[in-house]
Amino acid sequence: MVCRGWPRGSTGPTYRGRSTTPGYLGRVTPWQWSFADQLGPHFALPGHRVLLIESTAALDRRRYHRQKLHLILSALRHRAAELGSAGTLIRARTYTEALEKLGEPVVVHEPTSMAADAFVRRLHDRGRINEIVPTPGFTLSRQDFADWAGSRPRLRMEEFYRWQRHRLEVLLDGDDPVGGRWSYDTENREPPPKSATLDVPPPFWPEEDDIDAQVRSDLDRAVADDDLELLGADGPRLFAATRAEAEQALTTFISDRLPLFGRYEDAMLADDWAMAHSLLSVPMNLGLLDPLEVVEAAVDAYERGRAPLAAVEGFVRQVIGWREFVWQCYWHFGPDYRQRNHFDASTPLPDWFAELAGDRVEAACLSDALTGLRDRGWLHHIQRLMVLGNWAIQRGYQPDQLTEWFQTAFVDGYDWVMPVNIVGMSQHADGGAMATKPYLSGGAYINTMSDYCGGCRYDPKKRTGPTACPFTAGYWTFMDTQADKLAGNPRMRRPLQGRLRLTDLSQVVAQERARGAAAP
Ligand code: SF4
User: Fold this and answer.
1) CA distance 350 to 81
2) Cis ω on the peptide bond leading into residue 202 (within 30° of 0)?
3) CA pair distance 298, 514, nearest whole angstrom
4) By the 8 A CB rule, do 504 and 476 touch?
5) Can you give the pTM of this predicted structure?
6) Ligand 1 pocket test: which of 388, 458, 467, 472 has the largest number of ligand atoms within 8 Å of its C-beta?
7) What does the radius of gyration of the chain's CA atoms come to, in whole angstroms?
8) 32-59 confidence digits (pLDDT tens)
């Protein structure tokens, strides 16, 4: 991709606050630089003006989903408009150029990627950054996590989550969990109802405004001028990009949708892409919501009798459990983690998969996941884990490449989010550093947890022949080809033994080898 800077004709700041000259207001008001994922009020440092930077180099460095870039630009420009004279948004090729334009040192919160962290530390050494302060975007400091992790040979989310519940005093009755159990996973794994959609009120949908129209126009122009190459389709902005929208999204979820969230958390419906999910990962990862305010709102709904404990516990688990665990593990495991490749998976992502060409795929579950990702830049976690990730591990997709794809294709994907989710949980490429087994299944699981299979040309019960389900055949093929590496894992003993009872195993393996990288 050739990056020449966009939109063309840019002359500098899009929004500019009042003069930055020392002496304005009678004294120098210090600057705080906020990255595009640090936009909420909990990031605001008292007595500081806010610097926002629209760096074309940061935005066109990778091939992002169109709707992801729209969201980031919309969020940045809305924040600049809200700040008015209390902030400025500088448009420049690089962050360094923007800081030079500003001409004053800044304070910055710890950024969310290792690359950005190293960058701001270099700027600090050169005097361009006065101070790097801890991020309020998560509930736990890196040092506190390091103390917790200590010399544990393996990090397990469940232990971390319980520790977080204690530490933050969430859903506790003395030292015990409210309701007597730490987990309500068993209640939160129901198959979908027979209806085509969940009977649940819709999520909050934002209304686009002039800023979104300008973002759309800028992206159109950059693409037309070959300054930017994007993935996926354009579409109406579906996710909160301002603090006010994020608050409305949170309120709507808590009051209307949380009660049904837990029960169908792991289910999939072809005609209901949002189901009862919160969609809050997007504004949370833009830094528009404080994770603790999100958890407090959910716990308050439980305490007022407006949401069942199982649903609230499942949601709290996502926020102060999994989200925080993934964040901390990103730093804990370090930069080499993405390259881990326990199963020596080396298949490049095929074009139809990488390009989100769901219309070239006949397998109903996979087709819908790719099409949904193309059209919205977002899928709920079971489609991510048990359709896309499941397919990728069975087919031996290269984990680092897959991680990059998830990171750029999903509107809530960031450097810190995807390595542990993909390399660790989904692909088990770390060999079990943070999960006890690979997450994969045959078509039977997808058939139980979704309504896809009834309308699919394949049959989830068949392993061979023209109607053999590629997930079922792929599952047994993976078990067979990776048997040596799975043998030491007690949780894989049963499926490994099960494969030996298949009389057609060699036929299944040969069939899936012949399929190669073709779309199923
Ligand atoms: Fe997916 Fe197989 Fe079910 Fe088709 S039959 S929807 S490929 S699991």
Assistant:
1) 42
2) no
3) 50
4) no
5) 0.92
6) 458
7) 24
8) 999 999 999 999 999 999 999 999 999 8
